[in-house]
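Weekly modeling sync, notes
Attendees: AB, CL, MP (scribe)

Item 1: holo prediction request
CL wants a bound-state model with PMT before deciding which constructs to order. AB pointed out that an apo prediction alone won't tell us much about the pocket. Agreed to run with the ligand included and paste results into these notes for async review.

Input as submitted:
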Amino acid sequence: MIDNKNILLGVSGGIACYKTLELCSRLVKKNVNIKVIMTESAKEFVRPVTFETMAKGLVYSDMWEGHHEEVHHIELPKWADLMLIAPASASTIGKMANGIADNFLIASYLACQKDVIIAPSMNTQMLLNPATQRNLQTLREYGVKVIAPESGVLACNTVGDGRMEEPKNIVKYLEDYFTDKDLVGKKIIVSAGPTIEPIDYVRYITNHSSGKMGYNIANEAKKRGADVILVSGPVNPFEINGINKIEVKTNEEMKNAIEENFDDANALIMAAAPVDYRPSTVSDRKIKKSGESINFEFIENLDILKYFGSKKKDQTIIGFAAETDDLIENANKKLNVKNADYIVANDLKKEGAGFNTDTNVASFISKDGVKDLEIMSKKELANEILNLIR
Ligand code: PMT
């Protein structure tokens, strides 16, 4: 987790310095401790006092100041869990690659034994110049991680590669960097969202599942290094990175998508809310209004969780129970009938739990008993659920 990490933030000269202020603010909101080093050029773009305010601490830039207390360019890297240089200008990248410690930032970089990440920012031609490309390659070979600049309109009114990556994406990169990769080598299938069952050419039945619970599980599993297969019913778009997503509509499609991936999976997490019943017949045209009431016969759908519970070998199977009454009793029944290892029971009537909320209140039910959890974000609950995987 990024919470309470120490980041030594180097800021070199470039118009993207203004974006680094937003980056600072986003990191501070996530309880990251930041110490800032600015080059003299960076101070031409943004005054140190602005960074001091955003990062809530002193800005360092003078090699010759305050050495009676400690040698700052040696002590700051020791304090840091990570050094991030954003923006990294062509000149700073060149000095890093060649060990030219003629300013406080590069001296600190050379003294740094922690990982270093850079977010380059410069004009396209400067970026494409063979000298810059060679310097970037050298840094990669030294183990420096490079957050590739993106393409767009640049400050020099040209369009091309060279824009520093957006602060929100740099934060994501850092969150990913600080996440323990304890699920590497595990293939995890996560189902999310509702299914739908058609009634006629235009109508269908479904439920209120937004997919938030399932998508959070998939995203957190991916961050922790798992190979994630996300089987998603129809939901509003969510951001996902590097996840193999299979979009489905009906129960049958959801079951088939899981089946294709189940045999070599390590875990199945059924956070989806599949529809329990479907109409016995589906009209291939729009049913017209007749001025009279209408009856439909519904037949029961396959219980997907139960089906895979009966087929499981070494997989950890985690189901949910969405209940309005007798939560624990019903969840216990589901644990046994569906042959799951765990049931995550959520009470749909509880404040902050259930459909379309950003939080959930859950209890883990297993053969070992019941573990009640506090209200927490669906992201936090996702990580608690992933901790259950063997
Ligand atoms: O998507 P969100 O808006 O974030 O909401 C989250 C959630 C409430 C949908 C989620 O937390 C949740 O509880 N998902 C399970 C919903 C559900 O279908 O519960 P159930 O008690 O009816 O089913 C029990 C288990 O069997 C579930 O794991 C379900 O995925 C599975 N099931 C149900 C019916 C069916 N035909 N096949 C199944 O596999």
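Recorded for review: Residues 193, 209-213, 251, 270-274, 276, 301, 303-305, 319-322, 334, 346, 354-356 surround PMT (CB under 6 Å).
Action items: CL to compare against the apo run; MP to circulate these notes.
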